[in-house]
Amino acid sequence: MASEVIEGFYRAAQLADGAAILDLLHPRFEAHTAPGMPCGAGGAFHGPRDALVRVWGAVFAAYDTAPYAETWHETTDGITVVTGHYRGTARATGRTYEAEFVHLWRVTDGRISWLHQYTDTARWPDPLAPATGSGHDKR
Fold first, then answer.
1. CA 53, CA 60: separation in Å to the nearest integer?
2. Cα-to-chain-centroid distance, residue 61
3. What are the structural domains, with CATH classification, of the chain?
4. CB neighbours of 22 closer than 8 A, spacing ≥ 6?
5. Residue 59 to residues 63, 89, 122: CA-CA distances in angstroms?
6. Distance (Å, rounded) from C-alpha 121 to C-alpha 79?
7. Mean pLDDT within 44-58
8. DSSP of 55-87, one letter per residue?
9. What pTM, to 2 d.p., does this model score?
């Protein structure tokens, strides 16, 4: 069942388990992630390893983060729509963030074959920026 495979992805992402994520992805996996994602993680990615390294690996290197699903909708054409929030902290600063997402998933032959991600990319960069100190304007 598609929802079980997709739930497995969220569990693996919450554990930052790259091997488990790879096991869930179809050999012809394609990901389309939101332009403006930090760490070069926005764009089109082809193949499980490409997505693991350039999307999740890049983001996990900069953030201790995970997606948390909140609503699920199955469409009649086999797409699963999941809404929720990414939550976490920037590793370099320890600052927290939360960003809403919508994920569109397709499962083929019992593995995830397609992901289209939408997220509030404006929420991602602030936690990476160093603290400004006292808050006083230094002119």
1. 10
2. 13
3. 2-128 (3.10.450.50)
4. 48, 49, 52
5. 6, 11, 15
6. 23
7. 97
8. IIIHHHHHEEEEEEEEEEEE-TTSEEEEEEEEE
9. 0.90
